Give the backbone structure.
Amino acid sequence: MKKSTIWVLAIVMFVALFALLYLQVGYMRESITIRTQQFDEQVRRSLYQVMRNLELDQAREYLEQDIIESEARYLQHYGQLRGSTGIIERTSVAITHPDGSETRIEQQHIAGQPIGQSRTIARTQSDLQQALSQRFRYERALVDEVILSLITQPSHKPIEERIDFNTLNLYIQNELANVGLRGTPFGFQVLNFNNQAVYTSPNFSTRYQEAVFSQVLFPNDPPGRVNRMRVYFPTKRDYIRDELAFLAPSLIFTFILLITFIFTIIILFRQKRLSEMKNDFINNMTHELKTPVSTISLATQMLKDNSILKSPEVFKHVTGVINDETKRLSFQVEKVLQMSLFDRQKSTLKLKEIDVNDVVVSVANTHVLKVEKYGGTLDIDLEATESAVRVDEMHFTNVLFNLLDNAIKYRKEDVPLELMIRTRNEGNRLIVSVEDNGIGISREDAKKVFERFYRVHTGNRHDVKGFGLGLAYVKKIVNDLNGTIRVEGELGKGTKFIISLPTIIHK
């Protein structure tokens, strides 16, 4: 698959997943906002109704008091009215006829007046209507008086005398239940017109200001004597989150899907780059193997010529070429075999106890002539007193060979090569460092130098050949030996490889 096609698919999928994640986050935020507004509206409605209930209770209390007082005043006024207008009384008079029969005649008169002085029935009814009218006007005046007292008298009383806090708590519970918030914990506080708390319930707090709701009590009081109530809901956040709990898993899974997709794309590009490196490796390896094979084949053809046998010098030269090219071919095959190690989770190592100082001396002696060939020097500094480690001697030797070969390969052309191998102890670990004054390494290359098939860019130099497997092999072997390796360096100032291995402590 082309890289451009991968990029297009990656961009399309990323945009789609990001858009889905964005929509889910937006929907969740909108749902939280709506749920919060709904909760706030329900609380405000319930608190307003609590305020109305308190007003009704106060009005009922004053009406009951005024009814009792008005009845007493009415009885007093009724006695006065009875003394001035009198009460209509009914009397009957018996008339005896000559035949002895009697006829009774009903008469009406005002009580307290002689019957002969009674008014007519029509006049009496008129007086009653006037009496009822007077009572109506009186009762209306009483109602007006009660309303006036409700407006003026209560506001002069302290708020703690106007309401019962237990009743207020019960009202809040009932009204919250009426709006669908039954069982929601709350705490409340009552403040007087001086903004002083006259009552605070145990659950009241101001920890979260968005969970505190304020309600005016008795809003008809004068502006300077208005009391307030504050109600705190400690579980408001939990209430809102519980309602939206089903959205969280979908958001989390979408986010995991996005991360997985990004990781997959990264792995895909790495695998594609690895595939390209492998193709380059195969092409390079084919060329590297073809050259010695062709040389050996040509030398073999020459040995078939009988004239070669008659010239010992030519024969020696041809056999020397075959030997050199055979070693070169073996070295290339060894590189291929090293690559096969990366397909295993752990290398098959033959571990045994060795003295690293001895191995360093042996490897240094092998490279002295090669270093001196380029006018350089190779020094060793064996500071480690505990130098016994448990490693595979062959692979560990190859590790040091690779590091020294790289130092020689990436030397400066115009500066004599200086190589230094040191050993020292740090706690219960042995440190082996290989340092040179070569072309150095950049920070970016230092991060990738241990990757398979990765090769540091060498500019216009074409004499540096390889497959990009040497340092990757070094890192794998060191890791399999329970050690660590890191590189330090700067362009133009050389490179330093540092290996750390656990030592064997002899008691």
Notes: Confidence is low (pLDDT under 50) at residues 83-88, 105-119, 459-464.
